[in-house]
Amino acid sequence: MARGGISKVLVEQARDALIAKGIRPTIDAVRIELGNTGSKTTISRYLKELSEAEGSRLDDEELLSENLKEIVVRLARHLREEAAEIIESAESHHKEEVSRSEVKIAEIQQALDDSLSKLANREDKLSDEKKAHIDIQEQLTELKAQVRENAKVISELEIRIKDKDQSINSLEDKHKHARVSLEHYRHSVKEQRDQDIRQHEQQIQQLQADARQQAQTLIVKQNELTQLNKDNARLSTELKESQKSTKVLKRELQTSHSSMDKLTSMQAKLESDLEKMQENYTTLQTEHENLLEQHHLTVQELTDSGATIVQLETRIETQDRLYMDFKEHLTHVKKPTSSDKL
């Protein structure tokens, strides 16, 4: 018994109404036409009974005239052939759609894999560039510190050279004064001697008396001259030592300047490399963003394709269901008799 007041007559009326509207009378469609009432099992049973009843009426050859019987047989055979062609065409179309969907899914999956591979490679390169960038910055920092130390050493060397120059100038002045004093003393001694010689004949006795005094004075002068010579030799030695020290300091200064030039050149090169690394980093960052955008587009396309695949699967399921319903309907059609072959 049908539940909720559903009867075979009501099911037949709903089925006929759907056929009149051009809608296939499936179980769900009939139930909707009935106002979403009734059991699907009951509706299916009534539809099956109605189909069998109609089939038996059409296949009952005793109720038909000979001409009408022949027409019905031919029509049944034609319907069976047409149904077989429809089923075969539907199956072929179904297989083609499934094949195209699988090919498209494989292409999209391959594109996604390629995009992910490129993205991974770009991320590796970007990581390497970041590490190299950090190394260059550390080298540049160390180089700047070394340049500051060298500049400090050069400044100290320049101060020492100035002090040595002042000492050399002072020693040269002392040496010059000592030489002038020595010349002056020699000149005064010579004049004294000339004067003594000129007055020798006139003041021989006085000179004899003064000779002793002059001899003592000469001894004192000679001692002074010896001391001046010693001072002069000592000053010359100090001057030579100072000049040697100055040469050494100048060589150290030249070496420091050379090192400074090399460090400056290395700093310029590292700064140039750093600029190139920054440009490469910017380029890789741009490419990384482009790949991310492409990856998002690919994922979106895959999502859209997934929706398309779901739609195709829904259509395939619908076609399968229609095919099974149609095939089930054909099973109720009576097999051709000997009269069909005629």
Question: What report would you give on this structure?
Answer:
The chain is 89% helix and 0% strand. The protein has 342 residues and is mainly alpha-helical. The chain is rod-shaped, with a radius of gyration of 62 Å. Helix 1 (8-21) packs across helix 2 (27-33), helix 1 (8-21) packs across helix 3 (40-59) and helix 4 (66-198) runs antiparallel to helix 5 (204-331). The protein is built from six helices and no strands. Mean pLDDT is 79; it is low at 334-342. It has helices at 8-21, 27-33, 40-59, 66-198, 204-331, 338-341. Among the domains are: 1-58; 132-291, Helix Hairpins.
Provide the residue-averaged pLDDT. 79
Indicate the overall shape: rod-shaped
Regarding CATH, which class of the domain at 132-291? Mainly Alpha
Query: How far from one another are the termini?
Result: 44 Å
Uncertain stretches of 5 or more adjacent residues: 334-342
Query: What about the largest sheet?
Result: none
Structural category: mainly alpha
Count of helical stretches: 6
Order of helices and strands: HHHHHH
* CATH fold group of the domain at 132-291: Helix Hairpins
Jot down its keywords.
342 residues; rod-shaped; Helix Hairpins; 6 helices
SSE inventory with pairings:
Blueprint: H1 8-21, H2 27-33, H3 40-59, H4 66-198, H5 204-331, H6 338-341
Helix pairs in contact: 1-2, 1-3, 2-3, 4-5
